[in-house]
Specification:
β6 and β7 (118-124) form a beta hairpin. It is built from 6 helices and 13 strands. α1 packs antiparallel against α2 (40-65), α4 runs antiparallel to α5 (247-268) and α5 (247-268) runs antiparallel to α6 (272-298). The N and C termini lie far apart (81 Å). It has 302 residues and is an alpha+beta fold. It is 46% helix and 22% strand. The longest helix is centred in the first third of the chain and has 27 residues, at 9-35. The model has no long low-confidence stretch (mean pLDDT 89). A 6-stranded mixed beta sheet has the order 5-9-10-8-7-6, covered by helices on one side. It has a 5-stranded antiparallel beta sheet with strand order 1-2-3-4-11, with helices on one face. Strands 12-13 form a two-stranded antiparallel ribbon. The protein has 3 domains: 2-65; 73-184, no CATH class; 190-297, no CATH class. Residues 70-168 form the Bacterial Pleckstrin homology domain. The chain crosses the membrane at residues 12-36, 42-61, 197-216, 245-267, 274-300. Residues 209-252 form the DUF1648 domain. It comes from Candidatus Thermofonsia Clade 3 bacterium. This is DUF1648 domain-containing protein.
Amino acid sequence: MNVFDVDSRLAFTSGVIATVVVAFGAVACVIAALLIPLSGFTFLFALSAMALLALAIWLGYQTYQLTHINYTLNRNAFIIHWGALREIVPMSDVKKVIPADEITDDLRLSRLPLPGWWFGTGSHPVLGKIRFYATEPPDRQIIVITSKCSYAIAPYDEEAFLDAFRMRLDMRPTQHVTYDRLLPGFATWRIWRDRTALVLLFLAIGLNLALFGMSATRFPAAPTQIALHFDARGSVDRLGEKSQLFVPPILGLFTLVISLIAGLVLYRKGETLAALMLWGGSAAMQLLFFVAALTLGFSLPS
């Protein structure tokens, strides 16, 4: 068995820098949200901070994976180790291996434009789908071509890899190996393939965010006291501080968190329908809280 290392220094460095920059951006948005008067801009800064934090976590994870990458080769299989991912390609499926500079002009890859970040799924008009597992640009990559998919890789010692690979192709496999793609545990969760569950969750989360956004936008123009309740004759019988505008979104967030946790527990136990009903009910509750927030907004006393 031969193990071929990958020079990931440039990719790792650029990943660390990008992660730090994005994390600082998230912190800056949090500071801005805390310093400015409460308004719609506060909500936008808070939303930006959450988005940047999620991006920083993703970048950090991808950067960490770059510390655990290599390619393994034997008579029976070619194995790509990319962080927690393993791609096992039977040698019997490999048609040939070529330098990528022979087809560079037609390669297509949507990727994050960071130095050394040449990984993802791309395509070629003749080869079809290509999975990129490289830290070098296409003119320094190698394409492993199979009948179902091709792989763009960049071993540190390109010549040694090509020699070893072609030698293995000339040999006959001694064992039958089946193709497999081993993903990290969280990536195999069933919920990622359940479109109904994802739609309900995103709907509930989106409505709750809209609730906070609407309340924050209306807060500056609201009087100190707002009407909270009306009697049977339509007269205001209860007033409250304008901070009460945030009661509906906070209650909505509380119900969202409870339903999310309970739904995930049910979903993992195989109670899919119960989980979907819970998440659908949560989305409906967000809508009711939205109506309540609108009522508060339109019932501000003069």
